[in-house]
Amino acid sequence: MRLFLERGYDATTVSDVAAAAEVSHMTVFRYFPTKEALVLADDYDPLLVERISARPAGEPLLRRLQAGLIQALAEVLAADRQLLLARTRFILATPALRARQWETQYATQQAVVAALCGHSATADPEQEFRVWVTTGVCLAAAAAAIIRWAQQDGRPDLLELTQHALAIVAEEATAR
Predict the structure, then answer these.
(1) What global pTM score does this model have?
(2) Residue in 88, 72, 96 with CA at minimum distance from that of residue 1
(3) Chain centre to alpha carbon of residue 101
């Protein structure tokens, strides 16, 4: 991230990253299949899936997803607040990364749905669709909060902003 922030995305090569990490460019590609993956890769998905899965199974789906998201985000902020802010701002400012961000959100959504529904051939298709839709909505709300937070230079409290975004989802779901 340091190199990308200093030089810009287009001006930083995989060879530059490899040299800074004191490894070969082939080693970099062994762990990161694309240049975009160097910026977009993170360890947040397993944490998110774990926090959502740890919620009580009988809890309503929306509440389970919201609480798991907030818990995971709190842990990420405690460990990597500045990195999250820098990465988010960098992604927003870099068209090639913005375009690839949807892929990472899709992968996150797949991981959450798989954790909640499993991969069983006997899974209820309607329930799986319900989980897919609800997960997508919650992830989109969290992404909107993170984008606003980054656009405001990390000044608002991201947890409060995310809780507000998720509350909007809940309010809209119950509005008639």
Answers:
(1) 0.87
(2) 88
(3) 9
